[in-house]
Amino acid sequence: MNLVASKFANLIWTVLVLGALVAPRLAQAQTPTDLYNFKGGTGDVANPQPYGVMVQGRDGNFYSATTGGGANSNGGIFVVTPSGAETLIHSFQNSEGSTCQPGFNLGKDGNLYGDCYFGGAGFGTVYQATPAGTLTVLHTFTGGADGGYPNGPPIQATDGNFYGTNGGDNALGTVYKITPAAP
Question: Do 54 and 20 share a domain, yes or no?
């Protein structure tokens, strides 16, 4: 065996040994810590589905929305601190939307942007919510050329506008654009 082949074999052997020592440590499972368990009812929300869709605000807290619970049994927006304190900050009203989708996108302005599958004129809404829970409906879908039934929060693009998709005219789909300022 020549010198180059010997050094290469030693290098491979070293990588394999180190990999065998490090890999088990990386593969160890972590134990999650429950921060908060939802109670439902008028003072809390329920059913944040799909599970785990949250955004971290500029204040370090975690925000999402649910389809159940709240003061109107229509879901709401909640905040959870990193230490596990949960607060219902807004209960959805039918005029704002229903079957509001969990999750938001955090806007450059620090506000939360989300949508509701139903509500408004019946075909869903896009809204802005402040971290304090003040909600402004930015658009109510009509089910016509602007589509309807949005199913996921809009994203903010580099031009400052928000973009999303919905069921669209004739249920074929629409990509929409909306400004972050209320009309």
Answer: no
C-alpha distances in angstroms, 9 versus 14, 21, 108, 132?
9, 19, 53, 62
Residues 79 and 108 in one domain: yes
Burial of 94-117, coded b for 16+ CB within 10 Å and e otherwise, reads: eebbbbbbbbbbbbeeebbbbbbb
CATH number at residue 123: 2.120.10.30
CA atoms of 156 and 138, how far apart (whole Å): 14
Taking the model in full, what pTM does it have? 0.75
Q: Which two tokens stand for residue 140?
A: 């109510």
Q: pLDDT, tens digit, for every residue of 39-97?
A: 666 667 766 655 667 899 999 999 998 888 888 878 889 999 999 899 999 998 888 87
The domain in which residue 17 lies consists of: 1-28
Same domain membership, residue 49 and residue 20: no
Residue 12 belongs to some domain of the structure: yes
Q: Is residue 59 part of a domain?
A: yes
Per-residue pLDDT at 32: 74
- When divided into structural domains, the chain yields a total of 2
User: pLDDT, tens digit, for every residue of 97-147?
Assistant: 778 777 889 999 999 999 988 888 789 999 999 999 999 999 999 888 888
